[in-house]
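BUG: 3D viewer hangs when loading the predicted structure for this chain

Environment: internal workstation, default settings.
Expected: structure renders.
Actual: progress bar stalls at 90%.

Input used:
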Amino acid sequence: MPQPIADPAALEPVPPLQAPPAEHDGLYGGARTRAMLAVSLSVLLSVMDYAIANVALPTIAHDIHATTSASIWVINAYQLVSVISLLPLAAVGDRIGYARMCRFGLALFVVASLLCAVSTTLLELSLARGLQGFGGACIMSVNAALLRFIYPTRIIGRGIALNGLVVAAGVALGPTIAAGVLSIASWPWLFLINLPLGAVALLFAITSLPRTPTRYVAFDGTSATLNALAFGGLIVGFDFLAHRDGLPVALILLGMGVVCLVALIRRQSGRSDPLLPVDLLILRGFRAAVLTGFLGFVASNFFIISMPFTLELVLNRSAVATGLLITPWPLAIVVVAPFVGRLSDRYPASVLSSLGLCMVAGGFLALWLMPARPTNLDIAWRIAMAGAGFGLFQPPNNRAMLLAAPVTRAGSASAMISVTRLLGQTTGAMLVAMTFALLGAGANRACLALASLTALAGAAVSLGRLLRAPATAAPAR
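Structure tokens produced before the viewer hung:
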């Protein structure tokens, strides 16, 4: 068995977690590089395409003759299908193997991209985007689990940090690529460029991803249905509520979501391989990492969604200047990633993630306290500070979440990393919409204040891991 990660600070270590058996303890040399390239290209494809569609939405809505409110489903279809599919697909990944699931997701994503490009109506495009979201969920449900078989346990933090860097790069590159493509071609080419990138990713996935253990787990269709109704009802219901659009419908959807979620939890309790990982959520370390991650992404979306409005409407920056001024956020994440990977293999998430979220909160507070007429430098260094903090917070927290689970539950832990991110982003987006609806002109500053407070709440939850005795991971099954 591999040795536990040392804790030089004599603080609470990442729990002495159950690593894969020795014969599965990572790849070395070129084999690891090629396998990680397959994972990175797959994740980049999924994340970048979501960001590209956001930027291109006004152009797409105009060309397919859709209203602004209706065209939102080009975005919502992708995100909604992704959220409700992640946990069921993780269960299937346990059964067929994580590498096979990733390959299937890549192939489906490429086919769906082609369908998006040839769509001529909002319904066709929304359905194709939903299929894209399903393909992306196939990838994101197992990408972190694959890291347990690509990297040795003692340096897995580096792989998780690299994964985070790829996500940040996708977010940063998406708007730039969208602007460049739209300046010389029509919007279908935004989806057609996925074909060569997807083909290269699929080639590496077929030839380089490691074989992972499989085990027969009967697929629970009833639980998968309850999962879809629970997350779908809550997300769509809160979206209706946030936009003050159809209060009766919103309450019905929220009620359905709550009832289905309660039924799902009751059905999953006591099972050895639950689709909703209640067995992992009872582990204190895993639960704390999930809550910390959720609050961190809520805070980030308070900033990411509201800040462009602040820059353009309040501070009178052009669209181009706004894009450049937001760039220090992902750029700072990229810069700190190599250092964070090594730190997260040496120091506990309770220290690194807490420090990172405090930096995030400090950056957002500094933005809130900016002078009325700030220079571009005044804005940029504050955003860079918050971005560096976010880059410090995320990899150690994801590492703690992934390794808190026994290796036989790696698929569910991997899916929960993506579920936590998507739910945090979705909740943050809905809270921003609600804040703008309630406060109007004062919403921009309020969103920065709420972002800072939410990041501090996440830091408090993360720091709480230091004040408790280490939790023991569930036995491997």
